[in-house]
Amino acid sequence: MATLNPEPGDLSRGLTLNNSSGISLDSYSLSTSGREGPTTYGYSPAVAAYFDVHEPEHQSRHPANQRNERGRVVRVDRNLVLTAVGRELLHLPYPLDAGVPVTGDWVWIGPNRAGGRQITGILPRRSELSRKRAFEDSSEAQVLAANMGVVGVVVPVDRPLTHNRLERTLVAAWDSGAVPLVIITKADLADTADDVVGKVSLQAAGVDVVTTSAENGDGLDALLAHWPP
User: Fold this and answer.
1) How many domains does the chain have?
2) pLDDT band for position 17 (cuts 50, 70, 90)
3) Which domain, by its residues, includes 56?
4) What's the number of CA atoms in the CB half-sphere (13 Å) around residue 201?
5) Strands across the sheet with 88-93, in order?
6) Residues 174, 212: one domain?
7) What is the pLDDT of residues 183-211, one digit of tens each?
8) CA within 20 to 30 Å of 87's CA: 71, 136, 145, 197, which one?
9) Residue 228 pLDDT > 80, yes or no?
């Protein structure tokens, strides 16, 4: 599980950043009002500044009079991308020369030849969760998500603990550039929960481990503590 928000340090404050924060985001049709805009998915003044740094390079590859909006990829559906733009969620196409977007990408949106809108560029990624493609000889990794601050590795205690899989997942989380977090779930369903927690904590040395139960609410405050206020 890769969380889109928050990214520690500078790029995202998570789902709580909204109109009540008093932050003005007035460029390129982004708005702090509305439930579905990019602010809901982590747009902040720091992200705006990151866009500004790369704006000249992006503009150099497009017509000078072309107005580019900013948005964030929420989900990828084959050749269409669900993107938060302004106060809207839109399914947008993307040309291959713009790169292949993934969930979490910050993108520029501009006009297409049909008079609609499309993704015209992808902001350089600050973190990237990837894996090797199954059953393929290619050494190229498949990118699953981008610009995460936290990668949650979910371990349900009501299933056998697969140490090799946990190790592979932790390596991928560390390699992403984000902060790994092990989330042990369904702690109320197994008598061996303490044993699982001990084994996971030993294998995931150096990684925070949170034990949760959605049934009785245990551990949820500790989980939320890994998100900024």
Assistant:
1) 2
2) very low
3) 10-122
4) 10
5) 88-93, 80-85, 69-77, 106-111, 117-122
6) yes
7) 998 888 767 777 888 888 888 888 999 98
8) 145
9) no
CA 218 and chain centroid, separation: 25
DSSP assignment of 144-177: EEES-SEEEEEEETTS---HHHHHHHHHHHHHTT
State how far the Cα of 229 lies from the Cα of 126, in Å rounded to an integer: 22
135: left (phi over 0), alpha (psi -120 to 50) or beta: left
Q: Is residue 133 part of a domain?
A: no
| Residue 171 and residue 89 share a domain | no
Contacts 24+ apart (CB under 8 A), 216-223: 216/188, 218/187, 218/188, 219/184, 219/187, 223/183
d(CA 4, CA 17): 13
Please tell me the pTM assigned to this model: 0.74
In this structure, the answer to whether residues 102 and 56 fall within a common structural domain is: yes
Q: Among 86, 104, 122, where does a domain finish?
A: 122
Beta strand pairing call for 117-122 and 106-111: antiparallel
Residues 177 and 110 occupy one common structural domain = no
Please give the pLDDT value at position 49.
93
pLDDT digits (tens, 9 = 90+) for 27-81: 333 443 344 557 778 888 999 999 999 998 888 887 766 778 899 999 988 778 8
